[in-house]
Write a structure and sequence with these properties.
By secondary structure, the chain is α/β, with parallel strands linked by helices. Helices cover about 35% and strands about 25% of the residues. The chain contains 9 helices and 10 strands. The strands form 2 sheets. It has a 6-stranded mixed beta sheet with strand order 6-7-8-3-9-10. The longest helix has 16 residues. The chain starts with a strand and ends with a helix.
């Protein structure tokens, strides 16, 4: 469903992604991990072209995301890729319900009544139906992130991307967000998740990608990666986290 082929990304003279080759299959949950600055967030942001690349291809459902696309075509492509940011990015002047309804109504021309019903169903799924009329400033960080997940799901995307969805949260709020992501994984949603939550990766991922210095150094099943990492850098990373 998502394929990276010889992807290279530069910021000036600094190479953030180095000849990345990897595939996310339909229904697969891929966790991307590694030290800070390893290129994880940059990689996931190339999938919906939030970050341009200098060479290679990123394919989504066979379509080259970084080909020359008209603005409308790019917007249609992005509408099919749910993206959850680490800092929520909710509209502060809109209620929770209105935040979730906005894209279906404006982008997909869904009737407001239908969009409202879908939004309430999704809020119920993430345990926040009682917060429909609240505004983001009235919510905790964990609640805001669950609203952000519901907002992404409202577009009915076939794939969800999570860019460190718990990094801005207090420790007690992390579990409630990861529980929602776990439920999506149980339903067979195709997902890429950049995270430092190694217990979550061990429990939920079908595949773990370990990155450092812009390269994917190791790809493996969680059981193999956590019990017997092959690359010395992965071994050191897990040792530093006291994960083994």
């Amino acid at each position: 469903m998502i394929r990276f082929s010889h992807v290279n990304k530069f910021y000036g003279s600094y190479q953030a992604l180095v000849d990345v080759n990897a595939t996310v299959n339909k229904g697969e949950v891929v966790v991307v991990c590694g030290p800070s600055g390893s290129g994880k967030s940059t990689l996931i942001r190339t999938v919906n072209r939030l970050e341009p690349i200098q060479s290679g291809e990123v394919l989504f459902d066979g379509q080259n995301v970084h080909a020359e696309l008209k603005s409308a075509d790019l917007n249609r492509l992005r509408a099919r890729i749910g993206f959850v940011f680490q800092n929520f990015n909710l509209f502060p002047h809109l209620s929770v319900l209105e935040n979730i309804m906005l894209s279906p109504v404006r982008v997909n021309a869904v009737k407001r009544g239908d969009a409202s019903q879908t939004a309430m169903r999704l809020l119920d799924r993430v345990g926040l139906a009682h917060k429909a009329k609240a505004y983001p400033a009235q919510l905790s960080g964990g609640q805001q992130q669950r609203v952000a997940i519901a907002r992404a799901l409202a577009m009915e995307p076939p794939v969800m991307l999570f860019d460190e969805p718990t990094s801005s949260l207090d420790p007690e709020m992390v579990g409630e967000v990861l529980a929602v992501i776990r439920s999506l994984a149980a339903d067979g949603m195709t997902m890429m998740c950049v995270t430092h939550e190694m217990n979550f990766a061990r429990d939920v991922a079908d595949c773990v990608w370990f990155m450092d210095a812009g390269k994917i150094l190791e790809i493996g099943a969680p059981a193999d990666f956590f019990s017997n990492p092959q690359h010395p850098r992965a071994q050191r990373f897990l040792s530093d986290l006291h994960v083994r």
